[in-house]
Design a protein that fits this description.
Shape: flat
Strand content: under 5%
Number of strands: 0
Distance between the termini: 39 Å
Structural class: mainly alpha
Radius of gyration: 21 Å
């Protein structure tokens, strides 16, 4: 089965527009995360004065740690939001706090 719904019959006989929209939204979100990581870690780890064409050891280690921390925080925030959303849904509340 194709992600965009081309393998199975669709109501309109063409591309499943709902799946295309979901794919576009996911690409936008992934691109946003990537751009935020690049901007944040670049400003923290790389000097504005480029002395060499490649990263030096310190910059490379800093980038690795920065990206790892970014994903760890992103994971923790996602888990916290999921648990808060689940508890809000269970109680029937429409808002939740972290």
């Amino acid at each position: 089965m194709s992600f965009l719904g081309r393998s199975g019959p669709s109501p309109a006989g063409g591309v499943n527009h709902e799946r295309v929209e979901m794919a576009i939204n996911e690409i936008d979100m992934v691109s946003d995360v990537f751009n935020r990581i690049v901007a944040s870690c670049h400003s923290k780890c790389i000097s504005p004065r480029y002395a060499e064409g490649d990263l030096n050891k310190g910059e490379s280690v800093c980038i690795d740690r920065c990206v790892a921390k970014f994903f760890e925080v992103n994971k923790k925030v996602g888990e916290k939001m999921q648990s808060a959303g689940a508890s809000a849904q269970a109680t029937g509340s429409t808002s939740f706090s972290l």
